[in-house]
UniProtKB/TrEMBL annotation:
Role this protein plays: Catalyzes the dehydration of the S-form of NAD(P)HX at the expense of ADP, which is converted to AMP. Together with NAD(P)HX epimerase, which catalyzes the epimerization of the S- and R-forms, the enzyme allows the repair of both epimers of NAD(P)HX, a damaged form of NAD(P)H that is a result of enzymatic or heat-dependent hydration. Catalyzes the epimerization of the S- and R-forms of NAD(P)HX, a damaged form of NAD(P)H that is a result of enzymatic or heat-dependent hydration. This is a prerequisite for the S-specific NAD(P)H-hydrate dehydratase to allow the repair of both epimers of NAD(P)HX.
Pfam family, one: Carb_kinase
Catalysis performed (reactions): (6R)-NADHX = (6S)-NADHX; (6S)-NADHX + ADP = AMP + phosphate + NADH + H(+); (6R)-NADPHX = (6S)-NADPHX; (6S)-NADPHX + ADP = AMP + phosphate + NADPH + H(+)
Sequence ranges assigned to domain YjeF C-terminal in this UniProt record: 226-510
Cofactor binding note of this UniProt entry: Binds 1 potassium ion per subunit.
GO terms, biological process: metabolite repair; nicotinamide nucleotide metabolic process
Quaternary structure and interacting proteins, as annotated: Homotetramer.
Full protein name: Bifunctional NAD(P)H-hydrate repair enzyme
UniProt KW keywords: ATP-binding, Isomerase, Lyase, Metal-binding, Multifunctional enzyme, NAD, NADP, Nucleotide-binding, Potassium
Length: 514
């Protein structure tokens, strides 16, 4: 599913009207009709049904007037509370206001206060205050109206976006309406899918309002990876597949106290379809990992008296990396100086597609310019916001305030693929392509989940997936496996090995879903 900013949506609107001659009124009619249909479907039609429409002076309010007219035709009582004087309403919205029976509209230029009883008596409140035209923090009578709507205790359906959400980034501009359902038009906006906006909006429906396909296709936007798009990325396996054709991954991981990270990355690669997995670990940890893993082959590297990798392990690691289809570097490596030095050397010399995570990223953060030495070879980083902050020199709040921009800039500057983890992980490609991941849940906020993701992505790279597909499908599958688990165990107490073991079933379910 494609997702755009509010500004891009407004330029789509302009092109549809200006170049394709579609009247704005027709678009507004379809938008309002789509909302009315969604309301009818959710709440049913008929006598005794009441929708209170809280409308602003812009076109979002205009959609609200259409909703009132259509629901009235279906037997609803559909009063409009207009938070502006009628003279302030212009254009298509004014034309639709005129089509309403004057008795339906209450003009409230001084605010919604005093209307609480009417809201409480409704089956549904329709939020048509602000949409993509929001341009500042919400205060004054609109702010007060949002508080009153949120306090009324009645289900809310938001028109296009919950009022108060920035269409471009999902941030709350002061305060925002909490809706059960949002009906967005033509394309979803970033504010509909990025948190916190996605949570404020509830369930999302995107209505076709007849925008010309060419205009929609040509508009710049991001991809939102949902079940359908993830399924489209899965490649068929040949019936002739054998372990050699499904990719041999090398995982370079582990230090004393962090053997679990190494084991999970290796096992998750196997659970994601890798043909073979070799796990290179500091020699002292070999007995532990020999018993922790079964299918993965451990390679004890370096001296047996150290529980971490030394810089001197370089040649041995390069020799085991020869011929591997993908390498993962980082889970549980630790931050010893000698290990950091080793990571820096490996960056320049490893040939295979390389996934870097965790302590591997912390080592890269000390000298990110070394990434440029990988010239032309595939590099894929999977930072969480803290690691992204260290890599980019920004603070965590700066990263969180512009997750897309941050991921996109770093990927382009250092010519890497990058997964910025968190609720709605962002996947960025070196050519500027950006995807937003649609799977995952708060149960994943626990140690080791990143090690699992590293294994999944390494396995997909090893199977020959394009790096952008490996990052997008791997991130989706990881979150999707956790989503499948939520149904049986909830979000508290789910651990990384649960997700690791759920991967094959999740892939199976994804392929079967229609
Ligand atoms: N995208 C489509 O295909 C269609 C969208 N439609 C609807 O139109 C709105 C966008 O309408 P627009 O008039 O541009 O903006 P808004 O209605 O969101 O509001 C703008 C209005 O509000 C003022 N304003 C902005 N910020 C604030 C604030 N913080 N506090 C108070 N007032 C504010 C601003 O000055 C404007 O006057 C889109 O979301 C859809 O719902 C069409 O129906 C056609 C199809
Ligand atoms: K709205």
């Amino acid at each position: 599913m494609k997702v755009v900013t509010g500004q891009v949506m407004q330029s789509i609107d302009k092109r549809a009207i200006g170049e394709f001659g579609i009247p704005g009124l027709a678009l507004m009619e379809r938008a309002g009709t789509a909302c009315a249909d969604a309301i009818s479907e959710r709440f049913g039609d008929g006598v005794g049904k009441k929708a209170v429409i809280v409308a602003g002076k812009g076109n979002n309010g205009g959609d609200g007037f259409v909703i009132s007219r259509i629901l009235s035709q279906r037997g609803w009582e559909a009063p409009v509370l207009l938070l502006a004087s009628p003279e302030a309403v212009t254009g298509d919205a004014a034309a639709n206001l005129k089509r309403l029976d004057p008795g339906v509209v209450t003009t409230l230029p001084h605010g919604l206060s005093g209307q609480e009883h009417l809201l409480k008596s409704a089956s549904v409140v329709v939020d048509a205050l602000l949409g993509t035209g929001i341009n500042s923090e919400v205060g004054g009578i609109y702010g007060e109206a949002i508080d009153i709507v949120n306090a009324c205790g009645v289900p809310v359906v938001a028109v296009d976006l919950p009022s108060g959400i920035d269409a471009g980034n999902g941030q709350v501009l002061g305060r925002a309406v909490r809706a059960e359902l949002t009906v967005s038009f033509a394309l979803a906006k970033l504010g509909n899918v990025l948190y916190p906006g996605a949570e404020f909006g509830g369930r999302l429906a995107v209505a076709d309002i007849g925008m010309p396909q060419a205009v929609v296709d040509e508009a710049p936007g991001c991809e939102f990876v949902d079940e359908e798009s993830a399924r489209g990325m899965i490649r068929k396996r040949s019936v002739l597949a054998h372990k050699g054709s499904n990719g041999h991954c090398l995982i370079i991981a582990g230090s004393a106290g962090k053997t679990g990270a190494a084991a999970m990355a290796a096992q998750s690669a196997l659970r994601s379809g890798a043909g073979l997995v070799s796990l290179a670990i500091p020699a002292a940890l070999n007995p532990v990992l020999e018993s922790k893993t079964t299918e993965a082959m451990t390679i004890a590297v370096g001296r047996e008296d150290k529980g971490y990798f030394l810089a001197g392990a370089l040649d041995e690691l390069l020799s085991v990396a020869k011929g591997k289809d993908a390498v993962a570097l980082g889970p549980g490596l630790g931050t010893a100086h000698s290990t950091v030095y080793l990571v820096h050397s490996l960056l320049a010399l490893l040939e295979a597609p390389l996934v870097i995570d965790a302590d591997g990223l912390n080592a890269v953060a000390a000298a990110p310019e070394l990434l440029l030495q990988r010239r032309g070879r595939v590099t894929l980083l999977t930072p969480h916001p803290g690691e992204m902050a260290r890599l980019s020199g920004l603070s965590i709040p700066q990263v969180e305030a512009d997750r897309i921009g941050c991921a996109r800039d770093f990927a382009a500057r250092f010519q890497v693929y990058l997964v910025l983890k968190g609720a709605r992980s962002i996947v960025a490609a070196p050519d500027g392509g950006v995807s937003i991941n649609g799977s995952g849940n708060p149960g994943m906020a626990t140690g080791g989940m990143g090690d699992v993701l590293t294994g999944v992505i390494a396995a997909l790279l090893g199977q020959g997936y394009h790096p952008f597909a490996a990052a997008r499908l791997g991130t989706f599958l990881h979150g999707y496996a956790a989503d499948c688990l939520v149904e049986e165990m909830g979000t508290r107490g789910m651990v990384a090995t649960d997700v690791q073991e759920a991967l094959p079933r999740a892939l199976q379910r994804l392929m079967a879903a229609t």
